TrEMBL record:
<dbReference type="InterPro" id="IPR036890">
    <property type="entry name" value="HATPase_C_sf"/>
</dbReference>
<dbReference type="InterPro" id="IPR003594">
    <property type="entry name" value="HATPase_dom"/>
</dbReference>
<dbReference type="Pfam" id="PF08447">
    <property type="entry name" value="PAS_3"/>
</dbReference>
<dbReference type="Pfam" id="PF02518">
    <property type="entry name" value="HATPase_c"/>
</dbReference>
<feature type="domain" description="PAS">
    <location>
        <begin position="127"/>
        <end position="197"/>
    </location>
</feature>
<dbReference type="InterPro" id="IPR001610">
    <property type="entry name" value="PAC"/>
</dbReference>
<dbReference type="InterPro" id="IPR004358">
    <property type="entry name" value="Sig_transdc_His_kin-like_C"/>
</dbReference>
<dbReference type="InterPro" id="IPR000014">
    <property type="entry name" value="PAS"/>
</dbReference>
<dbReference type="InterPro" id="IPR003661">
    <property type="entry name" value="HisK_dim/P_dom"/>
</dbReference>
<dbReference type="InterPro" id="IPR000700">
    <property type="entry name" value="PAS-assoc_C"/>
</dbReference>
<dbReference type="Pfam" id="PF08448">
    <property type="entry name" value="PAS_4"/>
</dbReference>
<dbReference type="InterPro" id="IPR035965">
    <property type="entry name" value="PAS-like_dom_sf"/>
</dbReference>
<feature type="domain" description="Histidine kinase">
    <location>
        <begin position="403"/>
        <end position="614"/>
    </location>
</feature>
<dbReference type="InterPro" id="IPR013655">
    <property type="entry name" value="PAS_fold_3"/>
</dbReference>
<dbReference type="InterPro" id="IPR013656">
    <property type="entry name" value="PAS_4"/>
</dbReference>
<dbReference type="InterPro" id="IPR052162">
    <property type="entry name" value="Sensor_kinase/Photoreceptor"/>
</dbReference>
<keyword id="KW-0808">Transferase</keyword>
Length: 617
C-alpha cells in the first residue's frame, strides 16, 4: 500500500519502523508493510480492524494509548513487547481533512536490533502483566511517565479519586487537581527531579471528586538501563490524610497540654500557699517559693531530697503520712501546730496531701498544699475571747435591766399610789388646777413606766431566743386584735389568708402588737382602719400593716426606726419612741427586713419580711 506523502517514511528508514492510520472510529485504514511485518501479519488482513483487535500481547496498553491520543488530541507513546521484540509505540493525532473526521497515526519502532531470546521476552511480558495487574488492583495511585515527564500510564485509582476521565489524562491534568498553595513547590521539585534524575518526594493536597482536599505523599523514582540512562519514571501517591489528622490532633493535644502546664506553672508559683510535688520515692521534684521559705531553705536545696533527709528531727514526720497516702491513694487533710523551721516561732498550718495518679490509676507520687493559718487561728482566738466577753456583758445587761426595771418601777408604783391616795383624800376640797396637776403627775409616772418596759424589751430583742414552734398566723392575729380591742368605729381587718410558720411565737406576736397599736394610735381619727395582709416571696413571706392616718413624709422614713424617735410631741400622742425600733431589731435578728411606704395625707404601710428558714444565733 502507499501512504500519503505526509505520512510516508523518510528515505533510508530502517525496516524496524512502520506506520499506520486509524480513523475516527478506531479502525485501521492504511498501514505500511513494515508496520504489518513488525506485527507478523499481512497488510491486507489488518485493514478495517479496530486497534483493540491488533495482534498485540494480552493486556497490552497500546489500545488505551491510541484511544488516549484520539480523545485528547495529544501525542502519547509507550514501550511494549510484541513477538519477542521491544517496540516503541507512538500515537499522534492528525488534523482532520476538510469535512473529514480526526485520525490517529501510529508508529512502531523496534528498539532492539536483534530479537531477545523468546523465553526472556515471555518472562518479561509476564512480569509486566503481573505488575500492571497489581497496579490496577491496589487502592493506590500509580503512574509512569517518559523521560521528559509525559505520562504514559495512570492506574484506575487516580480517575476514581479525582473524578477525571481517561481522556483528561494529559501532562497537565495533575496540576488542575493540586492545591494552589502546594502547586508551586510541586512544580519546582518535579522539575528539579526531571533535570537531575534525583527521586522526587513531597506532601501535597489533591482535590477529591467531591471537592475535598486530601493530603497525599507523592514519590517518583527513575527507571534506568544498564548504562544508567533514564528510561522512564514510576511514581505513586499515598493518602496520608488520616495520619495528617492524627499528627494535627497530637499537635493540638500537645499545645493544650503545654497551655495546661503553663497555667499550672503560673498557679504553682503564684498561689499564696506552700506547694510541693514528690515522686514515688518521696523525693522533692518541685516546690514553690512560699513552702521553701516556710522550710527555711532555698527551692534548689529541696530538689532530689526526701523530707526526712532535710528535716530528720520532725516528729511525727510528714514523710510517714506521704507514704500512707501513696499506699492507700486517699487524700488526707490535717492541721499541724509547732515551731516554724524558718523563724522558730510557734504557728499553725492547714495541710492537704493527695496522690498524683496517671490516667491508668498508677500512683506517680504525692502533692501537698500547706497554708499558714497562724494569723487566722490568732484571730479566731481573739474572736472567741470577744464573744465570751460580749456574752458576759449581755448577761450582765440582762441582769442590770431586770434589776433596774424592778428598782425603778418600785418607786414609781409608790408615787402612783401616793397620788391616788392624795386624790381620794382631797377630792372634795382640791382645786381644779391642783386636780389637773395630779392627773399630769400620774400620766408622767405611767409614761416613765412604759419607757422602762420599752428599754427592757429593746435590750432583749434580737438577743433572747424562744424555742420555735408551729404558729398559725391567722389565729395569732385574732388574739392580737382581741388584746387591742379598738373602740368602734375604729377597726382592724385581715385581708388575706395567713400562713402557718415555724417560728418563735412571742416575738412574732410582739411585732404585730407594736405595728397595729402604732397604727391605731397615730391614725389621729376615731374611725381608724388598720388592714393586715401578706404575700409569699422567693425566700419566705412579706407582711404589711396599713393605716388610714395622716401619713409620714419621705424624709422621716428612716428616722422613725431609731430608738426614742417620735414625729409628734408626747403631749399630742403618748408614746416612748421604742416600738418601731423593737420591731426592726426582732425582724433583722431573724434575717428579715423592714420598710415603710407613705406620703403625707395618704396613710402609711409598714412592711416586714420573715424568711422561711431563719438564721441561727
Amino acid at each position: 500500500m502507499t501512504l500519503p506523502a505526509a505520512l510516508s517514511p523518510p528515505s533510508g528508514l530502517p525496516a524496524q519502523e512502520g506506520m499506520a492510520i486509524f480513523d475516527a472510529s478506531g479502525r485501521l485504514t492504511e498501514c505500511s508493510a513494515e508496520f504489518a511485518q513488525l506485527l507478523g501479519e499481512n497488510p491486507q488482513k489488518l485493514l478495517g480492524r479496530a486497534y483493540e483487535e491488533l495482534p498485540l500481547s494480552s493486556g497490552s496498553p497500546a489500545p488505551a494509548l491510541i484511544r488516549q491520543a484520539r480523545e485528547t488530541g495529544r501525542a502519547a507513546s509507550q514501550n511494549l513487547v510484541v513477538r519477542d521484540t521491544l517496540l516503541r509505540v507512538s500515537a499522534q493525532p492528525l488534523l482532520a481533512r476538510e469535512g473529514g473526521a480526526p485520525q490517529v497515526a501510529v508508529t512502531l519502532l523496534a528498539l532492539a536490533q536483534e530479537q531477545a531470546p523468546r523465553e526472556r521476552m515471555q518472562q518479561l511480558e509476564t512480569d509486566l502483566a503481573r505488575f500492571r495487574s497489581l497496579f490496577e488492583n491496589l487502592p493506590l495511585i500509580f503512574w509512569t511517565v517518559q523521560q521528559d515527564g509525559t505520562p504514559d500510564y495512570i492506574n484506575w485509582f487516580w480517575f476514581a479519586f479525582t473524578g477525571l476521565s481517561p481522556g483528561q489524562a494529559d501532562g497537565e491534568a495533575w496540576k488542575k487537581v493540586t492545591h494552589p498553595e502546594d502547586l508551586p513547590e510541586f512544580v519546582r521539585r518535579w522539575g528539579h527531579s526531571l533535570a537531575t534524575g534525583e527521586p522526587c518526594e513531597l506532601e501535597c493536597r489533591f482535590r477529591r471528586h467531591d471537592g475535598a482536599w486530601i493530603w497525599h505523599r507523592v514519590r517518583a523514582f527513575p527507571l534506568r538501563d544498564a548504562e544508567g540512562r533514564i528510561l522512564s519514571w514510576i511514581g505513586c501517591s499515598t493518602d496520608i490524610q488520616e495520619s495528617r489528622n492524627a499528627v494535627e490532633r497530637a499537635e493540638e493535644e500537645r499545645r493544650k497540654a503545654e497551655q495546661v502546664r503553663a497555667a499550672l506553672d503560673t498557679f504553682f508559683d503564684a498561689v499564696p500557699a506552700g506547694m510541693a510535688l514528690f515522686d514515688e520515692n518521696l523525693r522533692y521534684t518541685r516546690i514553690n517559693r512560699p513552702l521553701a521559705e516556710m522550710n527555711g531553705l532555698s527551692v534548689e536545696a529541696h530538689i532530689g531530697h526526701t523530707p526526712r533527709e532535710l528535716f530528720p528531727n520532725l516528729s511525727p514526720h510528714p514523710e510517714d503520712l506521704f507514704r500512707q497516702v501513696l499506699t492507700t491513694g486517699e487524700t488526707v487533710t490535717f492541721e499541724s501546730t509547732g515551731n516554724s523551721q524558718a523563724s522558730g516561732e510557734e504557728g499553725t498550718w492547714l495541710a492537704c496531701t493527695a496522690p498524683v495518679c496517671a490516667p491508668d490509676g498508677h500512683r506517680l507520687g504525692v502533692v501537698i498544699v500547706i497554708l499558714d493559718i497562724s494569723h487566722r487561728k490568732r484571730a479566731e482566738a481573739e474572736r472567741d475571747r470577744l464573744i465570751a466577753a460580749l456574752e458576759r456583758s449581755n448577761k450582765e445587761l440582762d441582769q442590770f435591766a431586770y434589776v433596774a426595771s424592778h428598782d425603778l418601777k418600785a418607786p414609781l408604783r409608790g408615787i402612783t399610789n401616793l397620788a391616788q391616795w392624795i386624790g381620794d383624800d382631797l377630792k372634795d376640797i382640791m382645786p381644779d388646777e391642783t386636780r389637773g396637776q395630779m392627773r399630769l403627775l400620774t400620766g408622767r409616772v405611767h409614761r416613765m413606766e412604759a419607757l422602762i418596759n420599752g428599754i427592757l424589751d429593746y435590750s432583749r430583742a434580737g438577743r433572747v431566743r424562744d424555742k420555735p414552734e408551729s404558729v398559725d398566723v391567722g389565729a395569732l392575729l385574732n388574739e392580737t386584735i382581741e388584746l387591742l380591742s379598738p373602740a368602734p368605729p375604729a377597726s382592724i381587718q385581715v385581708e388575706t389568708r395567713m400562713p402557718v410558720l415555724h417560728c418563735e411565737r412571742v416575738p412574732f406576736q410582739q411585732i404585730f402588737l407594736n405595728l397595729i397599736s402604732n397604727a391605731l394610735k397615730h391614725a389621729m381619727r376615731p374611725d381608724a382602719l388598720v388592714r393586715v395582709r401578706c404575700s409569699e416571696t422567693a425566700n419566705g413571706w412579706e407582711f404589711a400593716v396599713a393605716d388610714n392616718g395622716p401619713g409620714i413624709a419621705p424624709e422621716y422614713h428612716e428616722r422613725i426606726w431609731g430608738i426614742f424617735q417620735t414625729l409628734r410631741a408626747r403631749d399630742q400622742v403618748e408614746g416612748t419612741g421604742i416600738g418601731l425600733s423593737v420591731v426592726k431589731k426582732i425582724v433583722e435578728a431573724r434575717g428579715g427586713s423592714v420598710r415603710v411606704e407613705s406620703a403625707e395625707g395618704q396613710g402609711a404601710t409598714f412592711f416586714f419580711t420573715w424568711p422561711t428558714s431563719t438564721p441561727k444565733k
